[in-house]
Amino acid sequence: MNRERDKGRGGLFVLDSSALINLLGCGNPKLVLKAVESKCIVEDHVVRELTRHPIQGHDVHVALSELIDLGLLHRARLDNVSYEVFLSLVAGPPPEALGQGESATLALAAAIGGAAVLDDGKARRIAEKRFTQLSLPTSISLFRFAAKNADMSNEQVGILVGLAIQNSRMRILSDDRNWVNSLGL
User: Fold this and answer.
1) Is the CB of residue 18 less than 8 Å from the CB of residue 171?
2) Which of 61, 69, 82, 85 could pair covalently with 111 via S-S, beta carbons 3.0-4.6 A apart?
3) How would you label 3-33 residue by residue, b for 16+ Cβ within 10 Å and e otherwise?
4) How far is 177 from 124, CA to CA, in rounded Å?
5) 1, part of any domain
């Protein structure tokens, strides 16, 4: 199983703050989220981590509220069991401790059988070790799913990815580099 490309059960994506920032930075998160054709969820800890929109002049909280109101993004809260998992991740020994956003994303994805959309190398390494059945797509995976489902041209998706790189400083993991290069970026 290619854990970076698989969707969670029922097509559930749990987005980390980096994935959400990258979507906002592409300039058209509505288009991408509609085209992904899966339920995209963000945990409350992740929302609290976001303090500014990656595009100057935009308000991050207004943008998130709009995506939630449109039903393109869903907010969730950890239950008692997943909160214990969250605490174990955030309070681990220094080389194994994660930030609140990554911890909440992993705990929620594991609890609901979703895919944890993460770009952070340390978080992905810990997830691969602790959550062996968890799918781990990247921000680029969301753009790839959207491009395929909406039949976007390389030029169309290349503009979105290019803007996410420019505005959000989106990180491109090595497994995604060839696809990004195929877009002319």
Assistant:
1) yes
2) 82
3) bbeebbeeebbbbbbbbbbbbbbbbbbebbb
4) 17
5) no
Could you tell me the two tokens for 109? 């994805």
114: Cβ–Cβ under 8 A, 6 or more apart, which residues?
Answer: 8, 9, 10, 12, 13, 14, 41, 108, 135
Assessment of whether the complete model's pTM goes beyond 0.90: yes
In the chain, the number of structural domains is 1
Encoding tokens for residue 85? 């998992």
90 assigned to some structural domain? yes
Residue with tokens 């991740």: 89
pLDDT in tens, 76-125: 999 999 999 999 999 988 888 999 999 999 999 999 999 999 999 999 99
CATH number for position 40: 3.40.50.1010
